[in-house]
C-alpha cells in the first residue's frame, strides 16, 4: 500500500513489521471483508508521551472514499492508551493536498482543535547528495490540539 500510494516514502517490509510490533498501541490496520485496506503507523513522542506522532497513513486505492483514514486516526486519538492524547503531530509535503485535508478534518472532528503548520525538515535535510540526488520535498510539521 505504501508503494502504491505514490506519496509515501518506502521502507523495507522488515521496518513496517518491526514498527507495528514495537508501537502496536499506536498503529492501526483497516480490514474490509478481511482484506487489508489501510494502515496508520504512529508513536508517542518520548519527550512528551501525550503527543502522538503519525508517521504514515495509507489507504489502498480501491478502498478510498470510505472514511478509513479518518476512522483509524480517530481510533488512535481516542484509544491508544495512557496518557490521553492531547496533541497529534505529523509531517506533510506541500503538494499532498489529500493528507492536508485528512488532518484538517481530524482537527474539526476533535472538537475544532487548533492546527498549526510550521517548517520542520527542508530539502537539504532529507535529500541525498550527489549527481543522482533524489530530492525530497520539504516536510511541514502539522500539530493538532489540544482539543477545545
Please describe what this structure looks like.
The protein is an alpha+beta fold and 148 residues long. A hairpin with a 2-residue loop joins strand 2 (35-45) and strand 3. Helix content is 29%, strand content 33%. Strands 1-2-3-4-6-5 form a 6-stranded mixed sheet, with helices on both faces. It has one domain: 3-Layer(aba) Sandwich (Aminopeptidase). The protein is globular and about 40 Å long. Helix 3 (68-79) crosses helix 4. It has helices spanning 2-5, 13-22, 68-79, 97-109, 123-126; strands at 27-32, 35-45, 48-59, 87-93, 115-121, 139-144. It contains 5 helices and 6 strands.
Beta-strand residue fraction: 25-35%
**Based on the structure given, which CATH architecture is correct?**
3-Layer(aba) Sandwich
Task: Show unreliable segments.
Answer: none
- Tell me the strand order in the biggest sheet: 1-2-3-4-6-5
Helix run count: 5
Helix/sheet category: alpha+beta
Query: Regarding CATH, which class?
Result: Alpha Beta
Can you count the beta strands? 6
Rg computed from alpha carbons, rounded to a whole number of angstroms:
15 Å
Give the total of domains. 1
Helical coverage, percent range: 25-40%
CATH superfamily: Gcn5-related N-acetyltransferase (GNAT)
Distance between the termini: 34 Å
Largest sheet: 6 strands, mixed
Kindly report the CATH topology: Aminopeptidase
List keywords for this structure.
alpha+beta; 6 strands; 5 helices; Aminopeptidase; 148 residues
Amino acid at each position: 500500500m505504501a508503494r502504491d500510494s505514490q506519496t509515501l516514502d518506502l521502507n523495507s517490509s522488515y521496518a513496517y513489521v518491526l514498527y507495528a510490533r514495537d508501537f502496536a498501541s499506536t498503529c492501526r490496520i483497516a480490514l474490509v471483508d478481511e482484506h487489508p485496506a489501510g494502515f496508520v503507523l504512529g508513536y508517542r513522542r518520548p519527550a512528551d508521551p501525550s503527543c502522538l506522532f503519525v508517521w504514515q497513513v495509507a489507504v489502498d486505492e480501491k478502498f478510498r472514499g470510505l472514511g478509513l483514514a479518518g476512522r483509524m486516526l480517530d481510533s488512535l486519538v481516542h484509544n491508544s492508551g495512557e496518557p490521553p492524547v492531547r496533541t497529534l503531530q505529523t509531517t506533510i509535503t506541500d503538494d499532498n493536498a489529500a493528507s492536508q485535508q485528512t488532518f484538517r478534518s481530524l482537527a474539526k472532528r476533535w472538537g475544532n482543535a487548533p492546527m498549526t503548520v510550521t517548517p520542520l525538515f527542508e530539502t537539504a535535510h532529507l535529500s541525498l547528495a550527489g549527481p543522482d540526488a533524489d530530492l525530497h520535498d520539504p516536510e511541514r510539521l502539522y500539530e493538532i490540539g489540544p482539543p477545545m
